[in-house]
Design a protein that fits this description.
about 850 residues, alpha+beta, 6-stranded mixed sheet, 33 strands, about 20% helix, disordered N terminus
């Protein structure tokens, strides 16, 4: 869902620690020796081994550094009556489960039996190939090696000792280009190029890749590059990307241009062969390591996306290796998710700039992002989660152990943060989000309802009813039906995302007058695939063309409807009584209530307006819940959350501390409370969610962004220090520090320096108080997680004698199959089984237990 429709302004700035803005290369591998057997008795200096827990899944695994607990696909030690001396060896992968490895390499540990500390020799083979020389005993006493050159598919790793003990483990490797668990990749898909290129009749414009060579295959693989940058001490410098950055273009008629670097960049190219620059800054990490502020940026491609990995680097020290990370990296990963939402069939660069995460880099964090984890470039949430898994595995295999991972993002970036926690709990240890939405499936509810209502308000039947009312009264009625402070909340959703689900070429409809709600078509034809019109679906002339909404982009997850043309999808408004609470509060009349529901209508399977209500595909509903695509409070409770909530509820009201009203209000305050309601209902509390509200200055407070990183660091450090046998949900709550307590900053607090902890005082501020939504006004829950409601017969008593017999009869005709029964779960609503594996086809299957090594 949620990429701005063509011609509309991006409603939210990218959210990044520490400032907002955009944008990889592969560390050199350690080369192995060429003998058949490697001695493992002598320690090798400066080497570590403990690396990342299961990226996808811990399936509840709560520690990136927990010695695996068996969840990375490998068994523990065996024992015996001789103290373990006759027990077999054990083989385990460290950076991911053995059956989810990608990229052709895997960090592997050989575990000796209990009581056994040395062997004279050790032989390790990978698919019959001797890889013994990759292994050595590291300074922590563990036997670890990076096995490279894995073939796609099954690779049997066999380890043998001089004492005749042996074990084997099957590692299943997927290509670096993906997929691993998300199923078949959608086509056509067009690669970025070193320089942007213009569109032709049959190819779209290409984006600049930020890399020096072209793609080498259809999966858009581009050679990895490393560059060094240093932080300048120059005053007033810009943390925008220091190399030419792409200008996002939502069409395909012209190539996007590359914006030049800022005139005074904070980060400048560093040449290790030259004298140190006079303006080279220094930094001291949170681990107390003082170093020149030099950053190594690896840029490359993975899972068809372009990625950046940035980390403090000492060019005088040996090259990075998983078993010998440089000490200025604190082992912590900040993963940045890009905003908005879309499904372009073109390769992009990341929307978030690594250079914008100055505070995190200076503290010693590694910062990573991939365009396929930007919501703007990829609205397939399973593919997004898969990409994070692949990125974390690559970091573990190339750089060393990750202590914990913080996800971060605003708007669509918050969707991906929450979706990752719901689809693959444990992949992110904590998230710091702003402008939050829970997920795209249920965010689409409000957007779809607003589309129907904005269109209904312009229909002759409604206009006739409003003929005698003043414009202010008309808009007050709209606000009461919509649940927002005024009528412009739905205008924001309509303009920004109302056309996002269009499957073919279309001319966008937008509200051009906030007072009257008048609709016009001021933009040329476009499509959401960002493809030439000739490649896009048309029901008459090109039924086999690319379909351009989010469900079709992720058809490997949802599956196809009968006929094989369109994807199954979840949109539905059958039984929804628009304006019910407005009727009961007498904000609208009975005739207005009945007429509105008669004309509200829905959309057809090609996203065209129709008189009938919209009907979801039942299989898609169960998939959405099972896969965690409807954000699960049960899964989110395993992740520490700091939610930074700004105000964006009106295009008419200027929030204090801003220059004017929002252009496209969509990030409503109630969304954070909706997430909280899911936690309360599914888990029983919201102890894992800190809510920091700010009443002035726009969507994101820079003061709170920096503060949230420090507070989340403290929170997760405490979680990782908890060695108890309690669940991760309990650990997250027990470890929550006082610095993360809920508070608000009132709109009258110009200095933003006086936290208020009384929720009632916060709610009394109009720029902090949550509003509502059309579906909640229709009787739906605050959680807004019912995609399709179960139905019940109309009960005349529920309208409080406001409807006369004729109006009641008309309403019965509108809802011939019944109205929503909000006391029951939604159709197909069920607890998540995530993570699911879609490699065998749509619908997904739960991951099996992790593979374990077996004695030979």
């Amino acid at each position: 869902m949620l990429r701005p429709s063509a011609g509309s302004a991006e409603p939210a700035a990218h959210f990044s620690l520490i400032t907002a803005s955009p944008r990889r290369s592969q560390p050199p591998r350690s080369s192995g020796r060429t003998g058949r057997r490697a001695s493992i008795r002598r320690p090798v200096p400066l080497m570590l081994a403990l690396v990342l827990a299961a990226a996808l899944g811990g399936c509840g695994d709560d520690d990136d550094n927990d010695n695996n607990n068996g969840s990375n696909g490998n068994s523990g030690n065996g024992g015996g009556g001789d103290g373990g001396a006759s027990a077999p060896l054990t083989i385990r992968t460290l950076s991911n489960r053995a059956d989810l490895v990608s990229g052709g390499d895997a960090l592997v540990e050989i575990v000796l039996p209990p009581g056994r500390t040395t062997y004279n020799t050790l032989k390790v083979t990978a698919k019959g190939r001797d890889v013994s020389d990759a292994f050595a005993r590291r300074t922590d006493g563990r036997i670890v090696g990076l096995v490279t050159g894995l073939a796609d598919g099954a690779n049997v790793i066999v380890a043998e000792s001089d004492a005749g003990r042996a074990a084997s483990l099957t590692i299943t490797n997927a290509p670096r280009t993906g997929p691993v668990i998300s199923g078949a990749q959608v086509t056509p898909f067009f690669c970025a190029t070193p320089q942007p290129q213009g569109a032709t009749d049959n190819t779209p414009a290409t984006n600049a890749s930020g890399l020096g060579t072209p793609a080498t295959d259809a999966q858009c693989s581009i050679a990895t590059e490393d560059k060094l940058w240093y932080r300048s001490t120059a005053a007033g410098c810009s943390t925008s990307l220091p190399d030419p950055s792409p200008t996002v273009a939502f069409g395909n008629a012209n190539p996007p241009t590359s914006a030049p670097p800022p005139a005074n960049p904070c980060f400048k190219p560093y040449d290790p062969a030259a004298a140190a620059p006079a303006d080279l800054a220094s930094t001291t990490t949170d681990g107390g390591v003082a170093v020149p502020y030099i950053v190594r940026v690896e840029r490359g491609t993975m899972n068809r996306g372009i990625y950046d990995i940035a980390v403090l680097h000492d060019p005088t020290k040996p090259a990075w290796a998983a078993t010998a990370p440089q000490p200025q990296w604190n082992g912590k990963l900040l993963y940045q998710f890009g905003a908005s939402t879309g499904q372009p069939r073109r390769q992009y660069r990341p929307a978030i700039a690594w250079s914008a995460s100055d505070l995190a880099l200076a503290r010693g964090y590694m910062v990573a992002m991939n365009s396929m984890t930007d919501s703007d470039a990829n609205s397939n949430r399973v593919s997004m989660t898969e990409t994070v898994m692949m990125m974390k595995e690559h970091i573990g295999d190339s750089y060393g152990p990750i202590r914990f991972t913080i996800g971060s993002g605003c708007s669509g970036g918050s969707i991906n943060s929450n979706m990752n926690a719901s689809i693959a709990p444990g992949q992110l240890d904590g998230v710091t989000i702003a402008c939050a939405f829970p997920d795209s499936e249920t965010t689409a509810i409000e957007v779809s309802d607003c589309v129907q209502l904005v269109e209904a308000y312009q229909k002759p039947e409604w206009v006739a009813l409003m003929a005698a009312a003043t414009p202010d009264l008309v808009n007050a009625k709209k606000a009461a039906i919509n649940g927002h402070p005024d009528q412009t909340g739905c205008h924001g959703g309509y303009n920004a995302y109302g056309s996002n689900a269009k499957v073919g070429n279309y001319v966008q409809r937008v509200v051009v007058d906030n007072a009257s709600g008048a609709i016009a078509t001021p933009f040329p034809a476009t499509n959401n695939c960002e493809l030439p019109a000739s490649l896009v679906y048309d029901p008459g002339t090109h039924p086999g063309g690319a379909r351009c909404n989010g469900w079709d982009w992720a058809s490997s997850i949802w599956g196809k409807a009968p006929g094989g043309i369109r994807s199954l999808e979840t949109r539905d408004n059958v039984g929804v009584q628009y304006g019910l609470k407005a009727l009961l509060s007498d904000a609208i009349s009975a005739e207005e209530f009945v007429t509105l529901n008669e004309i509200a209508g829905g959309i057809d399977q090609d996203s065209n307006l129709q008189p009938a209500r919209t009907t979801a595909d039942p299989p898609a509903l169960s998939i959405a819940y099972r896969a965690g695509l409807v954000m699960s409070g049960r899964n989110l409770a395993k992740t520490a959350v700091i939610d930074l909530r700004g105000w964006d509820d009106s295009a008419l009201i200027t929030q204090p501390g801003t220059a004017g009203p929002s252009r496209t209000p969509i990030h409503f305050v109630w969304r954070s409370f909706s997430i909280r309601d899911r936690l309360d209902k599914e888990v029983g509390d919201h102890g894992s969610q800190a809510l920091w509200r700010v009443g002035r200055g726009g969507l994101v407070s820079p003061t709170l962004v920096g503060r949230s990183l420090v507070a989340m660091d403290e929170w997760l450090t405490r979680v990782k220090a908890d060695a108890s046998a309690t669940t991760i949900e309990q650990k997250v709550r027990a470890a929550r520090p006082p610095s993360t307590a809920d508070f608000c900053l009132l709109s009258t607090d110009e200095a933003q320096s006086t936290p208020v902890t009384d929720p009632a005082a916060c709610d009394a501020d109009p720029f902090l108080k949550p509003s509502s939504s059309p579906r909640q006004v229709a009787g739906g829950p605050l959680a807004e997680n019912v995609l399709k409601c179960q139905l019940r017969p109309i009960d005349p008593a529920e309208y409080g004698d406001r409807l006369d017999p004729q109006q009641l009869q008309r309403l019965q005709a509108v809802f011939a199959t019944g109205v929503c029964d909000w006391t029951k779960p939604g159709v197909g609503q069920q607890p998540p089984e995530s993570p699911l594996d879609f490699s065998a086809g749509p619908g997904g299957q739960p991951l099996p237990p992790p593979p374990v090594s077996t004695p030979n």
